[in-house]
User: Which sequence fits this backbone?
């Protein structure tokens, strides 16, 4: 994208779910997959342990109460502030639980600099809804998204449930979507079917550049071959645990049955500093 030097990459880290190691690994992945100068900006409530190359900022003020009893990550709405860490121009937002597997340059070159570009909702591909796992925007150009949200944060959150639904439906002029191959969902596109998971690890879809990990498992789980809140076990042990309600990862047989994976080779190769 002309005039965009350095490239700006943004992440948010708050609470205890993800540690500094996630930010440090993200920096390493960005560095290996961008050949031009870049800055990784981390907006966080705890910068301890984050490598010096990352430009850390305080979490931007949301300017209102964070909605409660709704599923979306509404804290992310602060990214639409007019002033965001002094960043000028276009920025690429990447969720911390993402694994970058190929060149990021096309994400900065695709479309118009004024576009808001998201991944398409993987679970509802015909819904015309987007995912904010990885999206590009021009900082400050959609400040109305935050301003409108601030007028009735709880009401907006209850209406849309997920902040990405709010963004998709509220960007003036509409959003654009990345080419389908570029951003893929780990569970949906990488893991084999339930039976296949006992014999084969997850694989990279052709043309993928970033793998997203919504919900569970996360990259740390895929790295060692465990499910969230579980421990690495053999396929045989996992099947035997199905018969013991106290050892199941989910209450239902089906829920436990699907929660198995072998260590993922591409996560081992790419998710590192």
Assistant:
């Amino acid at each position: 994208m002309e005039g965009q030097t350095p490239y700006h990459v943004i992440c948010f880290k708050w609470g205890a779910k993800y540690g500094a190691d996630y930010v440090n690994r993200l920096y390493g992945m960005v560095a290996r997959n961008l050949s031009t100068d870049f800055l990784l900006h981390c907006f966080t409530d705890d910068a301890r342990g984050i490598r010096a190359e990352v430009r850390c900022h305080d979490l931007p003020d949301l300017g209102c109460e964070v909605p409660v009893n709704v599923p979306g990550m509404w804290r992310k709405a602060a990214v639409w502030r007019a002033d965001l860490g002094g960043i000028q121009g276009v920025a690429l937002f990447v969720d911390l639980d993402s694994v970058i597997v190929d060149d990021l340059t096309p994400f900065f070159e695709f479309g118009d600099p004024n576009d808001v570009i998201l991944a398409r909702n993987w679970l509802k591909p015909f819904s015309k809804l987007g995912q904010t796992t990885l999206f590009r925007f021009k900082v400050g150009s959609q400040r109305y998204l935050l301003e409108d949200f601030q007028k009735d944060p709880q009401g907006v959150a209850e209406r849309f449930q997920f902040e990405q639904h709010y963004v998709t439906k509220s960007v003036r002029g509409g959003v654009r979507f990345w080419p389908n191959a570029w951003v893929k969902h780990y569970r949906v596109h990488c893991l084999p079917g339930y039976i296949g998971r006992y014999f084969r690890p997850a694989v990279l879809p052709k043309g993928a550049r970033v793998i997203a990990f919504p919900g569970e498992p996360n990259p740390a789980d895929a790295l060692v071959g465990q499910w969230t809140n579980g421990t690495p076990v053999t396929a045989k042990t996992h099947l035997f645990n199905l018969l013991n309600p106290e050892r199941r990862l989910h209450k239902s047989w089906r829920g436990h049955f699907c929660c198995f994976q072998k260590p993922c080779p591409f996560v081992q190769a790419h998710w590192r500093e």
User: Anything to note?
Assistant: The mean pLDDT is 94. The radius of gyration is 19 Å. DSSP finds ten helices and ten strands in the chain. The longest strand covers residues 130-138.
